[in-house]
Amino acid sequence: MEDKDFLLFIKKVKDYTSIDLSQYKEAQMKRRLTTLRMKKGYTTFASFFEAMTKDKELFYEFLDRMTINVSEFWRNPNRWEVLEQKFLPDMLRKSRKVKCWSAACSTGEEPYTLAMILAELNAQDSVVLATDIDDGALEKAKKAVYSDRSVRDVPAKYLQKYYRQENLTYHIADPLKKSIRFQKQNLLVDTFDTGFDLIVCRNVMIYFTEEAKHLLYHKFANALKPGGILFVGSTEQIFSPAQYGLESAETFFYRKTEA
After folding, report:
1. pLDDT at residue 68 is higher than 80
2. What is the per-residue pLDDT for 70?
3. Residues above pLDDT 90, as percent of the chain
4. Which UniProt keywords apply (predicted)?
């Protein structure tokens, strides 16, 4: 009975939002959503869904739980250093304006990290697109106000130049905010723009099924220009990247082959 309740919930969510929860690892997703449902006092997923459709705040909380909006600036700093010192300078030698995309950008720490690096490399005119499925996360990203915990790995020169501290919060400088275009997007359903020099999609694929990952890696490869780079998370190594038209360029960086 419990499984039927959850399966019907998956169907209703897909009909209502186009979000296909069956593409996520079931055990993880079911556990997280059961915890939220019980915390809110609903005994079934049917009653939880009905409440979600009437209560916008509850719906946003569902999205937040589903997408695991945990992010920090310069997450895994040594990987961002590789991007800053190797891949972006290579791209900028060919063109002073590069086209970048932060996919599943959560509350904005990742695209702002990228925008700061581009600004330091005198590539402020580059395009940075940042997308996420969660309206609540995107609103937070646009406000660009963060806790001191989020900035703990930010290098001192960046912290001084691109943030304004107010008590225990850090506000992103306005020029940097204007350099990013935030947009709602469902990675599994929506079509992607093309011609990207760089796609950053980190710590997201671990929540998807193998079938969903396979679909997304093909879509990301098609969105990259030849020689473009896909930057993934520290637990998201791509096995057999050649099947997607990619090759390993460095640990957690994959290049679209020129063929």
Report:
1. no
2. 60
3. 70
4. Methyltransferase, S-adenosyl-L-methionine, Transferase
- Provide the whole-model pTM: 0.82
- The DSSP H or E segment spanning 50 is helix 45-54
Direct distance between the N- and C-terminal alpha carbons of the chain, in angstroms, rounded to an integer: 52
Is the pLDDT at 113 greater than 70? The verdict is yes
CA distance 122 to 66: 37
Q: Say if residues 233 and 205 touch (Cβ distance below 8 Å).
A: yes
Burial of 100 (0-12, 13-18, 19+ CB in 10 A): buried
Mean local confidence (pLDDT), 215-229:
97
As a whole number of angstroms, the distance between CA 86 and CA 56 comes to 44
How many CB atoms lie under 10 A from the CB of residue 96?
A: 13
| CA distance linking residue 127 with residue 101, whole number of Å | 8
Give yes or no for residue 202 having a pLDDT over 80.
yes
The pair phi, psi for residue 218, each rounded to 5°, is -65, -45
Q: Is 36 exposed, middle or buried (0-12, 13-18, 19+ CB in 10 A)?
A: middle
Based on C-alpha coordinates, what's the Rg of the chain?
Answer: 19
Neighbours of 213 (CB within 10 A): 17
Q: In what order do the strands lie in the sheet with 180-184?
A: 180-184, 127-132, 99-103, 196-201, 224-232, 253-256, 246-250
